[in-house]
Amino acid sequence: MQTAVKLVIEPIFEADFHDCSYGFRPGRNAQMAVERVAAEIKGGRCKVYDADLSSYFDTIPHGKLILAIRKRIVDGSVLALIRQWLKATIVEPDGVWRKPRGKGTPQGGVISPLLSNIYLHWFETCANIIAKGTGQHMAIVRYADDFVILAREWKEGFRQGVESAIEGRFGLVVNRDKTRCVDMKAPHESLSFLGYEFRYVYPRRVAGPRYLEYGPSRKSVKRVCKKVKELTKSTRGLIPAEKMVADINRVVDGWGRYFRCGYPSRMFGKVNWYVSRRMYLWLNGKSQRGYKLKYAENYCAELSRMGLLMLTRKRYRQ
């Protein structure tokens, strides 16, 4: 039923949504949001307000959300269904029953991403009004509840006005510990957004001015390496090597496709080294006598002949 309602009302709201939002929308993805942030920074908007909303999906006020929906939907039966879904008791994976108590959209619900976009669409509208009132020229890039505001310079009162609107008018919570303002032109500064890290660096091999480098963050690399380590632990020593290679390729290839934007080669190399090392240890742990090469004269060629995927920038730019 949620899917049916979403199919009907999504095109209505898509006609209103701003161009700056990319999450959970037809024909849009995280990579487009990343490229938009890079383009804005390269265009001179190097002052970045990196906001963090605490438990956004769990704190959306039902009353205000329904008001946002009623801007475009007046059918009483559809509104009644949405109200019931918002009020429904949620059963957590550990068996605990939780009542929404007037806030939140059920994470994992088919219609929840659309509802979250509807609510934050009005935040974007409000931020544009505040910018116009303070004379602030800026750009917003949002993916679901992750958003950044980019500008050349900050006008007095703009950021304070945005935070006041988020916490007052929209009833959400700004995480002050994680929210920060970044000057991308400052030495050693970096911005993390959707798992990517943006920073200005000097060319490594030739002299020249700094340029914007962006690619997988260190945390993202650690997360995929942790998954590979789980796959290659000693308790999985009895599975066939072909099955292990297929499992690793599925994880690594999905990660590489997500992080295909920007300059990922250096981090791709780190992941490739780690995967090869874990496969070497896993193969030698299958037997007390160690692994004997079957297809090639060295381990790198052996792993390649076994079909192990190596991440390259060219692979995902074709």
Relevant terms:
318 residues, alpha+beta, 3-stranded antiparallel sheet, 13% strand, globular
Can you characterise this structure?
By secondary structure, the protein is α+β, with helices and mostly antiparallel strands. 46% of the residues lie in helices and 13% in strands. It has eleven helices and nine strands. The strands form three sheets. A four-stranded antiparallel sheet has the order 4-5-1-6, with helices on one face. Strands 7-8-9 form a three-stranded antiparallel sheet, with helices on both faces. The longest helix has 23 residues. The protein is globular, with a radius of gyration of 24 Å. The two termini are 39 Å apart. The mean pLDDT is 93.
Task: Please provide a brief summary of the model.
The protein is of the alpha+beta class. The protein has helices spanning about 1-15, 30-40, 55-60, 60-70, 75-85, 110-135, 160-170, 220-230, 240-260, 265-285, 300-305; strands at about 45-50, 90, 95-100, 140-145, 145-150, 180-185, 190-195, 195-200, 210-215.
Number of strands: 9
Strand content: 5-15%
SSE order, one letter for each helix or strand: HHEHHHEEHEEHEEEEHHHH
Strand order of the largest sheet: 4-5-1-6
Number of helices: 11
* Dominant shape: globular
Distance between the termini: 39 Å
Query: Uncertain runs with pLDDT below 50, 5 residues or more?
Result: none
Q: How does the helix and strand content classify structurally?
A: alpha+beta
How would you sum up the major sheet?
Answer: 4 strands, antiparallel
- Global mean pLDDT: 93
Radius of gyration: 24 Å
What helical percentage do the residues reach?
40-55%
